[in-house]
Amino acid sequence: MLDFFRQKGLRSAVYGVIVLGLVLVFVLGFNPTAGKKLGSLSEVCVARVKGSCIDPKAHRAAYRLIFANGTGKMRQSMASRIVLDGLIERELLVDDAARLGLTVSDDEVTDAIMHGIVRVSIPSDNVMLNYDRSMRRINDLRFNDGRIMMQFTDPKTKQFDLKIYGNAIKQYTGRSPKEFREWQSREILAAKMRDLIRAPVRVADDEAVGRYMEERTSATVDYVVVRRSWLEHYAISSDAKDVAAWAKDTVNLAKVKVPVRHILVKFGGTKDEDKSAAKKKAVDILDRVKKGEDFAKLAKEFSDDPGSKDNGGEYPADAIEKFVAPFQQAVQSVKPGEIVPDVVETQFGYHVIKRADATNDDIVKAYKHDRSLELSKQIAQKIANDMKSGTPGESAVKAAVAQFADTDPQRPQFVASTSIGRYGPPHGPPISDLSRDADEAVRKFAFDAKSSEVSDPIRSSDGFVVVALKGRTVPTRADFDKDRDSFKANMLAVKQAEALAFYIRRLREASKQEVKIDENNVFGAKADAGAEPQQDEDEGP
Predict the structure, then answer these.
(1) Which of 109, 451, 453, 459 would suit a FRET pair with 325, their CA atoms being 20 to 30 Å apart?
(2) Angle at Cα 443 formed by Cα 442 and Cα 444, nearest 5°?
(3) Is 255:370 a contact under the CB 8 Å cutoff?
(4) Given a cut of 70, is residue 93 above it in pLDDT?
């Protein structure tokens, strides 16, 4: 090992002491079970992978490193599961490495530590996290390919310092030097396996040229957006008779957006008696609500939903569309002001549900929103039909909305898009403020249609859009030759990520009976892991 460091140019007496220190830390603290099946059946594990135990302390250490800067908008439960999936993948790869006879030497671990390289596994088969140099990079987590750079050097001498190293790994990972070396040994072995899987992937010139031509071909379109929000303001009256007639229909009333209150009663387990007891409790609460007791007070007293309990069980109307289907269906089955007649079962437990009363403004707003969908489609269809018959786009739009006099910038206008690409970047969105489905539909039309062809109305989140293709620009071989190296490098990174993801999925599938997760320990034991992550605020429906 000393020869190894001399080859790296570490000849000073100071570095000699450092090296000997690292050697002693490794030899005296060596874990003879490294890389083998660990622990007894009675020990606490977040997961068991082919007999190997991932303990809560290890899970928390990886969590601290990966999300050292917080989870951002990601739920902590999701962040925790990402960390766990990465650790499970690591153990599967370590097991596969043993099958292939792949190993990691002491020198490799020491070399990584000396250079401040810390490895942490993230799930390679997670599409959201997949490393893609050309598109995403996974820099939301601030490291590339599972490598985090840490400072183990003295700020003054710029040389590796054993004390700084020990303090840093203790602070950031809660690991002893012995545990840290064992951890990094397994991480480096898993990284070797990933490199081995990616190594055979190649990108041929012909393949790269074809992809380049497809990705870099751009299109331009002329378009008009007929927005429901504009129609609601300028084109739809709120005549009391029309609104009243619309509101007589129960189906229409279900569309009125009002807050919803609910009381959740969780069942503690999967046994029939647990569910039966929870259901009886929910039914008793429902009976009290039907008899006129204050819903909000009952929710504060009995609800098991932390996201709404303190607010009297209330969720705003716009939140309901994010809830599970049985809950949504129950809400839509009753009119504003009504109680759902029976308790509703979801995977969260049993729910007692009541819709708030609707004001006249609520009903008028829903009426206008409902009528605007039909009217926006009619106007968009008229514009499309006129353009297909040869009417210039600007004239077709002007005729379709002539009866609505206003100067609102949201008024339908026939305009030209910027240059757009088939898949998005490097070109921007074809039309701003479109839903994802509408954006994809516009791109598909732009690259499938013939020049000057006009689309049928395309539904978006705020009405309909009509598109006419102006033309497409195709790159040349000379353009490809200029971008060849960078484009092929990016394409190779994508293909390697796909190959690795496929391999990991196959590995997980083959080993699914040998991977056991203990959901009760997903965040780790409090004594070992410090403060628990906060409970998800929307654990309810």
Answers:
(1) 459
(2) 90
(3) yes
(4) yes
Find the angle CA(139)-CA(142)-CA(144) to the nearest 5 degrees. Answer: 75
Q: Which two tokens stand for residue 116?
A: 């401040």
Instruction: List pLDDT tens digits, range 9-32.
Output: 333 333 333 333 433 433 333 333
Three-class SS state of 162: helix
The number of beta carbons lying within 10 Å of the beta carbon of residue 38 is 18
Is-above-0.85 flag for pTM? Answer: no
Q: What is the 3-state secondary structure (H, E, C) of 31-43?
A: CCCCCCCCCCCCC
d(CA 212, CA 480): 7
234-243, 250-259, 324-333, 450-459 — which one is most confidently predicted on average?
A: 450-459
User: What is the distance between the alpha carbons of residues 401 and 381, in angstroms, rounded to a whole number?
Assistant: 12
pLDDT tens for 381-427 read: 999 999 999 999 999 999 999 888 777 888 999 999 888 888 865 45
User: What's the pLDDT score for residue 4?
Assistant: 33
- Distance, in Å, from the CA atom of 382 to the CA atom of 465, rounded to the nearest integer, reads 12
- From residue 81, give the alpha-carbon distance in Å to each of 86, 121, 140, 423: 9, 12, 16, 30
303 neighbors 539 (Cβ within 8 angstroms): no
Angstrom distances, CA of residue 443 to CA of 111, 397, 410, 416, 423: 49, 22, 22, 14, 8
